[in-house]
Write a structure and sequence with these properties.
With 138 residues, the chain is of the alpha+beta class. It is built from 4 helices and 3 strands. Strands 1-2-3 form a 3-stranded antiparallel sheet, covered by helices on one side.
Length: 138
């Protein structure tokens, strides 16, 4: 980890982070709950992302460096979402979801929802719609 990405000991956030220390800490706690998937990559060593946010990716020459880089990228993504008033995906290991809600949409609405979910880094429509609905529900 470079000196630039080391945490500032007195604020609890990255030294170059534009985020409030409390928001950064909250974001790191959420990101550390995510399930990391790390794969060997012939070009960079290892490639990582999270099950909950597959569009947030990082790499590293070792598994440890890849995990640290991936967690930092996830923390940044979560902090950005929180700062914008969005709800990041819940960790896959959190409370088991056993109740189901079915809604019908047009083919065009489904496509728009899929595009929005992908653009915002959600695993799929269900996570995106759940986060949006829960945000509105309070």
């Amino acid at each position: 980890m470079s000196a630039k990405s080391r945490k500032n000991s007195d604020s609890g956030k990255k030294a170059d982070s534009p985020f409030d220390a409390a928001l950064w800490k909250q974001s790191a706690e959420i990101a550390h709950g995510y399930r990391l998937m790390i794969q060997k990559d012939p070009d960079v060593g290892y490639f990582g992302r999270a099950l909950e946010m597959p569009m947030v990716m990082a790499d590293g020459s070792t598994i440890a460096r890849c995990a640290a880089s991936t967690l930092e990228a996830l923390t940044l993504a979560v902090a950005t979402m929180l700062e914008q008033g969005e709800s990041p995906p819940q960790p896959a290991t959190s409370e088991k979801r056993s109740a189901q809600i079915n809604i019908r949409v047009t083919a065009e609405e489904k496509l728009r929802l899929e595009e929005a979910a992908q653009r915002l880094g959600y695993r799929g429509i269900s996570d995106y719609v759940r986060a949006a609905a829960m945000k509105e529900a309070g």
